[in-house]
């Protein structure tokens, strides 16, 4: 299943397929430097109600 298709599943269908439940986190991203340069960095953090969280992750699956 593609990432695009998995991202479009509703919670019930995802659960039926054995995928983990939805999470109530927001992914915030930012970049530093220029794309393609040696100084390029992608910064990210997970937030719940504006508070930084550190979830365990395996690939695109949060636990």
Structural overview:
- The structure is a single chain.
- The protein has 63 residues and is an alpha+beta fold.
- The protein starts with a helix and ends with a strand.
- It has a domain at 20-62.
- It has helices at residues 3-8, 11-16, and strands spanning 26-32, 41-48, 51-53, 57-58, 61-62.
- It is extended, with a radius of gyration of 15 Å.
- Strands 1-2-3 form a three-stranded antiparallel β-sheet, with no helix packed on it. Strands 4-5 form a two-stranded antiparallel ribbon.
Q: Can I get a quick summary?
A:
The protein has helices at 3-8, 11-16; strands at residues 26-32, 41-48, 51-53, 57-58, 61-62. The chain is of the alpha+beta class. The protein has a domain at 20-62.
The fraction of residues in strands falls at 25-35%
Count of extended strands: 5
User: Count of helical segments?
Assistant: 2
Question: What integer value in Å does the Rg equal?
Answer: 15 Å
Order of the strands making up the biggest sheet: 1-2-3
Helix content: 10-25%
Low-confidence stretches: none
Shape: extended
